[in-house]
Amino acid sequence: MKDLSIFFSPAEIPTEIKEQSLGNSIVVYTPGDFPVMKKGGVALIHVPEYRGIKNSNFSTQKEHFRAHLYDLHPNVGWDFQVYDLGTILQGNEKSDTWFAVQSVVEELVKNDIFPLIIGGAQDLTVPLYRGYKALEQMVNVCTIDNQLDLGNYEEEIHSEGYLSHLLFDRPCYLFNCANIGLQIPFASNAEFDLFDKLYFDVCRLGEFNADFKKAEPHLRNADILSIDLNSIKASELNSESYLSPNGFFAHQICQIAYYAGISDKLTSAGIFNYFPEAKPGILSSLTAQIVWYLMDGFAQRKGDFPVGSKKNYTRFTVHVESSNEDLVFFKSNRSDRWWLEVSYPGQKGSEYERHHMVPCDKDDYERAMQNEIPDLWWKTYQKLM
Question: Between vectors from CA 225 to CA 220 and to CA 227, what angle results, nearest 5°?
Answer without folding.
Answer: 125
